[in-house]
Design goal:
Oligomer: single chain
Structural class: alpha+beta
Largest sheet: 7 strands, mixed
Number of helices: 4
Strand content: 35-45%
Low-confidence stretches: none
Distance between the termini: 35 Å
Shape: globular
Radius of gyration: 19 Å
Mean pLDDT: 94
Order of helices and strands: EEEEEHEEHEEEHH
C-alpha cells in the first residue's frame, strides 16, 4: 500500500441536489515519489440497496424507474432511443446524521415496495464508481413473505417507482445472459446464486 493522502484544499464547486467538490491532494505513490493531484469528485454520500427474495412466490422483488442517465447512456449506442427505464434493486440514500445503513434499508424497502423487512443481511459495502464519485453502497439481502407487504409502496410523492416480481429462474437467466444493467442487482444476483448453491 502506498502512503497516506493529505487533502491540501477542498472546495465545493456545485451545491445542488447533487454536489461536486474539487480537491488538491498529495500522496506517496507506489514508486515512492510524492504525487500531487487536483480532482473533481461527485459527492453523493452513502446509499443502501436491497435484494428481496419472496419465499412464497420464489421471486425477487425489484423496482423499475425512469433514469435520465440510463437514457443518455443508451443514446450513445442508439441516438434515437427513448428508453430510460431501469430494473433495479430497492435503493436510496442514507439520511445524513444518525441514520444507520440498516435503518435506511428498512425505510427505503418499505417506501419503495411496501414490504417490511426485519433482519437484512449485509452482502457487501462498495464504491459505485470510485474514479469520480464518493458514493458508497451498503448492499443487503432480505427474505420476505406475502404477508410482509404492509403498504402499497411506489416511493415518495415525487417518485414513480413500479414494483417488479421476477421469478428467481428468470433472474438467474438474466445473470447468465449478461443482461443485468444495474450493478447493485448484478452483485446481489451473483451473491444469491452462490448462496443458493
Amino acid at each position: 500500500m502506498s502512503g497516506d493522502a493529505i487533502i491540501k484544499r477542498h472546495r465545493r464547486n456545485y451545491d445542488g441536489f447533487f454536489k461536486i467538490d474539487e480537491l488538491d491532494v498529495s500522496f506517496v505513490g507506489g514508486a515512492g515519489r510524492t504525487v500531487e493531484q487536483t480532482r473533481e469528485v461527485f459527492e453523493r454520500g452513502d446509499a443502501v440497496a436491497a435484494l428481496l427474495l419472496n419465499l412464497d412466490s420464489n421471486s425477487v422483488v425489484l423496482v423499475e424507474q425512469f433514469r435520465v442517465p440510463a437514457l443518455i447512456g443508451r443514446r450513445r449506442d442508439e441516438p434515437a432511443s427513448a428508453d430510460g427505464w431501469m430494473t433495479e434493486t430497492v435503493a436510496g440514500m442514507i439520511d445524513p446524521g444518525d441514520e444507520t445503513p440498516e435503518a435506511a434499508v428498512i425505510r427505503e424497502t418499505r417506501e419503495e415496495t411496501g414490504y417490511q423487512i426485519r433482519h437484512p443481511r449485509l452482502i457487501a459495502k462498495f464504491f459505485s464508481s470510485p474514479g469520480g464519485s464518493s458514493e458508497r453502497i451498503f448492499l443487503y439481502f432480505a427474505e420476505v413473505r406475502d404477508r410482509d407487504r404492509v403498504e402499497k409502496g411506489g416511493g415518495l410523492e415525487d417518485e414513480d417507482v413500479k414494483l417488479v416480481h421476477l421469478a428467481l429462474p428468470a433472474l438467474l437467466d438474466r445473470l447468465a445472459a449478461g443482461s443485468i444493467e444495474d450493478p447493485k442487482l448484478l452483485i446481489a444476483a451473483c451473491w444469491l446464486r452462490s448462496h443458493l448453491q
